[in-house]
Amino acid sequence: MAIQEQILNExxxxxxxxxxxxxxxxxxxxxxxxxxxxxxxxxxxDKQVLCAGKQYESFxxxxxxxxxxxxxxxxALVIVVDTxxxxxxxDDRYTKGKALIKIDHHPNDDQFGDIMWVEPDASxxxxxxxxxxxxxxxxxxLPSEGARLLYAGIVGDTGRFMYPSTSSHTLEVAAKLATxxxxxxxxxxxxxxIDIPLARLSAYVYENLTILDSGAAYLVLSxxxxxxxxxGDESTSAVxxxxxxxxxxxxxxxxxxxxxHSFRIRLRSKGPEINELAKTYGGGGHPLASGAVVxxxxxxxxxxxxxxxxxxxxx
Length: 315
Fold this sequence. Notes:
Layout: H1 3-13, E1 16-20, H2 27-43, E2 48-51, E3 76-81, E4 99-104, E5 115-118, H3 125-135, H4 144-157, H5 168-177, H6 184-192, H7 196-208, E6 210-211, E7 216-221, H8 223-226, E8 251-257, E9 263-269, H9 275-280, E10 284-285, E11 289-294, H10 300-314
Parallel strand pairs: 1-2, 1-3, 3-4, 4-5, 7-8
Antiparallel strand pairs: 6-7, 8-9, 9-11, 10-11
Helix pairs in contact: 2-3, 2-4, 3-4, 4-5, 4-6
């Protein structure tokens, strides 16, 4: 039995389905979560489908999460989407259901769930949700709002179809979603636009980015740096792709100070695979897009040295 059919059979068994995604979400995390919810609701109107996780104002255009009582988990199927490892799941009640399914496109280093469907070569989890629909479309209904959400997730995780994970299948799925009743240009515009504080932070990134001879680059966004911009940590994700637009930059790290004064590392690459480096600093992710952590500002240069060595070795 195909994995998509197994997942559908599990969904059919439960009256309550609760969908989780990762902390500090991006359009794919929310698009796959909300898109799957729309798909299940349209296909099985008698089921209660809930979306868990912190609500962010900047993502309200993709939908809103639900208030979920603890007792609702008792007889529920829980589905975790777009989340590579368990510490990143938003809302730790994801283990409280009767059954657990993992759907993801990151390397499957942390295997959890009664059913796991993980495709690291997929562009996004939103692409996988469409594949789930497509393989069972004789039994499922994808509404236009669900299509919009999945399209938004694909656009977000492919960097507007620029990243190497974009395959011919990705473009085929996007084209099929574009036939639904929503505006692809509106989605593209929303994902591309920034407000004035973020525009000013973008200027700061270009002005202060350190580019090493190897092609490695880095930037430190401390609380002191970020304070004048009046932006939260989640807003800094929008500037992560910017160094990649510079021809001389091969791989780059953006360090963002956290409440405990550790630094979250947003790590990207155009060529050298950086996920193994991320793992040595308590993180992980895709070969060309990962995250990690250093526990204090004093250890930032240790990471920079390791990144520089990695890029120089692969140049």
